[in-house]
Amino acid sequence: MALNNTYDARLLQQETAVGAGVQLLLLTVLGTALGMGPAGWLTGLAFALATWAVLSRALHRTRPRSFGPANRVTLGRATLVGGVTALVADSFQSPPPVTVLVALTAVALILDAVDGKVARRTGSSSALGARFDMEVDAFLILVLSVYVSTTVGAWALLIGGMRYAFVAAARFLPWLNNALPPSTGRKTVAALQGVLLLLAGSGILPYAPTFGVVALALGLLTWSFGRDIAWLWRTRGSAEREVERVEVERLHRETAGVGAP
């Protein structure tokens, strides 16, 4: 068994190493073809290093038997997000290659609809995969909101920062960590964020429609978060009682086992 575990661990390490290598290759291609400056290079390298470190740690902690085809798709999407991140960082020093940025973002958004289907069809769905997918989505939205904020104003950063503000608030308000019921509306709003921000950042619309598209994205996201927070607030008492009930049952089982033959 030890040999199998070691072998699996090595395979997982190889998967993350390949992902980091592909990320470096993409940065090299972008840097060579587009003349990317120091800001883009450093930001892209930092993203690659952070992704490799966080993913490696998560795999070590959860110890899955294999990386899985769905996670490979998500890792590929993360690589594209790394390229978008580098281009956005570089755009503060020189005009961005909008066509390339839009193309990378569009493919990343398309693949977002692929990894979930792959996970379901191959029976490889996992908590790690779902979290990996969500974090890649959230970071792409953050990067896109930074990009469009240079056109419409700093208020656009609220779109990318809202999810991280929610996570930070949950550290102090535990009821925000309670499970939410499935919601088609929540999924639709989340999917629209990338599409609307991509449209706004493409430069094909005049300023007023671009402003309106970003405002629509922020309005939808505010509605979605507001609805979820309101639901969590209303049900916080019942959730806490359920946690207490489970804990009491666990203590009763442990107590009943004491002294048993």
TrEMBL record:
Keyword Thylakoid in record: no
Record-given protein name: CDP-alcohol phosphatidyltransferase family protein
Keyword set, alphabetical order: Membrane, Transferase, Transmembrane, Transmembrane helix
Similarity remark: Belongs to the CDP-alcohol phosphatidyltransferase class-I family.
InterPro entries found in the cross-reference section: CDP-OH_P_trans, CDP-OH_PTrfase_TM_dom, CDP_ALCOHOL_P_TRANSF_CS
Keyword Hydrolase: no
Species: Streptomyces phaeochromogenes
Transmembrane segments: 20-53, 139-166, 204-226
UniProt superkingdom: Bacteria
Gene3D superfamilies: 1.20.120.1760
The organism's taxonomic lineage, starting at the top: Bacteria, Bacillati, Actinomycetota, Actinomycetes, Kitasatosporales
